[in-house]
Amino acid sequence: MIIKFRRIVAFAVGCGLPILTMVPAHAERKAEEPAGSESVVLRPGDHGESVRLLQRRLHAGHYYYGRIHGVYDEQTKFAVWALQKNRRMRPKEAVGHEVWHALGKPPRFRPLVPNGGADRVEINLRDQLLTVFRDRRPVLFSHISTGAEVHYCDNGHCGNAITPVGDFRVTNRAPGWTTGALGSMYNSLYFVGGIAMHGSTKVPLQPASHGCVRLPLTTSKRLYEIVKIGEPVYVRGSYSP
User: Fold this and answer.
1) Which listed residue (62, 143, 198, 210) is catalytic?
2) InterPro entries, from UniProt (predicted)?
């Protein structure tokens, strides 16, 4: 699904980095919404029209890529976390006034690499957030879990669980599930050695991988569709609880 934008406003703040304000075309017309939906507090396991509205808004904001089925499942939770991280909220499962309010406003985003490629992937280790840009516009936001930053020895393989910081490019793609000594990966996009962005069934709030960048499964499908070999990947920051 392609979301068209009526206008994009860029302006400088503080340190001179641009902030992008996107106004979706659909935001200028009133949607049919359940009465009082924004006063509802939603939690994992809830279902109904308010959850469908939540999923539609998350999808319009480029956070959610699952089915609009009205069930607050794990993939919906991951999308809520991505929104909260992007808006500098503390990630939590409950969807209350703060989240509804954020969904009702045009998203704002500060690029990690303002002068990077027009089409690129940015990985923010501090916020554990991945963003894909097309023509310098963010088109996908995802909650991620990166390297746990510990020494490990698993199945005879030892190393340091670190996601390297730097400027890279996608070097290889592996569709579907692949399994190695350190576990299983879905729709892998390698960008430095054996380190890849890939879908996973385990994407906790804290860094937990051997160095790869884990994404929710449904989001990884969309990522694999749009990111090709040679695309720039910028990794920045450091995680602190």
Assistant:
1) 198
2) LD-transpeptidase, LD_TPept_cat_dom, Peptidoglycan-bd-like, PGBD-like_sf, PGBDSf, Transpep_catalytic_dom
Task: Choose among 118, 78, 66, 77: nearest CA to 222.
Answer: 66
Which stretches of the chain are DSSP H helices?
A: 49-60, 74-86, 97-103, 217-226
Q: What does DSSP say about strands 183-192 and 172-180: parallel, antiparallel, or unpaired?
A: antiparallel
pTM of the model: 0.83
Q: Let me know if 69 is a catalytic residue.
A: no
Q: What is the pLDDT of residues 38-84, one digit of tens each?
A: 678 999 999 999 999 999 999 999 999 999 999 999 999 999 999 99
Lookup: tokens for 93: 């499962």
Whether 241 is covered by a domain: the verdict is: no
Catalytic residue among 62, 143, 210, 212, which? 212
Same structural domain for residues 53 and 134? no
Query: In terms of residue numbers, what domain contains 231?
Result: 120-236
